[in-house]
UniProtKB/TrEMBL annotation:
One of its GO terms (molecular function) is transferase activity. It comes from Clostridium botulinum. The lineage of its organism: Bacteria, Bacillati, Bacillota, Clostridia, Eubacteriales. It comes from the Bacteria. This is Glycosyltransferase family 4 protein. Residues 28-188 form the Glycosyltransferase subfamily 4-like N-terminal domain. Residues 201-367 form the Glycosyl transferase family domain. SUPFAM superfamilies: UDP-Glycosyltransferase/glycogen phosphorylase. The keyword Cytoplasm does not apply.
Length: 394
């Protein structure tokens, strides 16, 4: 057990199914910290919600329903959120403020400034992506991108610890902001799934013939995730190979239309998102997991998608984009192959090869069983625990 300290986490979302933050708050609470998460309130959600090891306070904004969604209104809403976070912080009296992503940094900064006259409060920045090179920036006015980047630049050096999700992003942040220490890498990895039941969930739900092999994409169904190219590739895969797209998102209808247009609708199945607790059972019902993220921004190029590790926990080989951090996992653990995500022919060829070469497939699958013993949250969380021990002892 660690000496009891108050940890205040700040997130700028409604804290629903945010697996990374839930896992972090949960393990810190289990270690003896008093953890509170400040989030945004949305209709239908509890203002205060008690989890087993931490509490979430969702903050109601008076300006949220009254104002439109233009840029000026967003700033007014943000200022109200910032003010109310400070009020909550004064009541909670934190020892450590843990800011998730760039937009919460000014909130963490003002909390420490206002409360530091009573005690030394530590600040942690947990960057879930490379914000200065994020996909959001492509649609944002330049002035807002500059403001966002200046916020990160001005606050990051004042943080006691910086956390991020991949080695490439850690290296980039260190070089970009001339940090003395490389940020700590804590990957978004699922819990260990000890027993794989090898159910045939998809075969049964969609009445797919037992001899057919299932290629799986799981996660948000949106642009930039290689789903359209994956559907395209099904034109060139063998007759005994089908695709299941598991998840919700704005592009489901569009992708169904594409499958119909390409005359592969009999090879492409859509399944809505499932309870995270049941996800790996669904994952393990497939034969190959796909993560073909596009290089639309540097943050994507340096990413390490959670779904890769979910596939490994489900003990199915992985076919992913040939980007540095993803490629490193594939090569180090021997759990699959990488491809150029824009090359439909290469994708189809790799799928056909992986699912037709039995010896190679068995090797990938066995390597997944070995890799999952290392690539799980139970192991990864030790890095977070050690970081907190270091910050307390400092």
């Amino acid at each position: 057990m660690i000496e009891l300290k108050n940890i205040l986490m700040v997130v700028q979302n409604d804290f629903v199914n945010d697996s990374r933050i839930i896992k972090e708050a949960n393990i810190l609470g289990r270690c003896g910290f008093n953890v509170k998460v400040l989030a945004l309130h949305n209709k239908g959600l509890k203002e205060e919600e008690k989890f087993e090891y931490f509490i979430v306070k969702r903050i109601k904004l008076n300006t949220r329903d009254r104002l439109s969604k233009n840029k000026l209104s967003q700033i007014v809403k943000y200022m109200e959120f910032k003010k109310k976070c400070l009020q909550e912080a004064k009541k909670f009296n934190p020892d450590i403020v843990h800011c998730h992503d760039v937009y919460t940094l000014p909130i963490g900064k003002v909390i420490i400034k206002k409360l530091s006259n009573t005690k030394k409060i530590k600040l942690i920045y947990d960057s879930h992506e490379l914000w200065s090179q994020a996909s959001n920036n492509l649609s944002m006015p330049n002035i807002l991108v500059k403001l966002q980047n200046n916020i990160e630049k001005n606050v990051i050096k004042k943080c006691d610890k910086v956390i991020t999700v991949s080695d490439s992003i850690a290296q980039y942040l260190m070089k970009q902001y001339k940090l003395e220490k490389k940020p700590t890498i804590i990957r978004n990895i699922p819990y260990m799934k000890k027993e794989i039941t090898n159910k045939s969930i998809f075969h049964e739900k969609f009445n797919i013939e037992k001899n057919k092999k299932i290629v799986l994409y799981q996660g948000a169904v949106g642009k930039g995730r290689g789903i359209e190219n994956l559907i395209n590739a099904m034109q060139y895969t063998k007759d005994n190979i089908v695709l299941v797209i598991l998840g919700n998102g704005s592009m489901v209808k569009k992708y169904k239309e594409i499958a119909n247009k390409l005359a592969v609708k009999d090879k492409v199945y859509f399944h809505s998102a499932v309870d995270p607790k049941e996800l790996i059972d669904y994952t393990s019902s497939a034969n190959l997991g796909m993560s073909l993220i596009f290089n639309i921004c540097l943050s994507y190029y340096y990413s390490l998608p959670n779904k890769m590790f979910e596939y490994i926990q489900g003990e199915i080989p992985v076919l992913c984009s040939n980007y540095p951090d993803m490629k490193e996992i594939i090569q180090n653990y021997g759990v699959g192959q990488t491809v150029e995500p824009n090359d439909v022919g290469e994708i189809a060829k790799a799928i056909n090869e992986i699912l037709s070469k039995d010896d190679e497939y068995c090797e990938y699958k066995n390597n997944c069983k070995i890799a999952k013993e290392q690539l799980n949250w139970e192991k990864e969380s030790n890095i977070l625990i050690q970081l907190y021990k270091d910050i307390i002892d400092f």
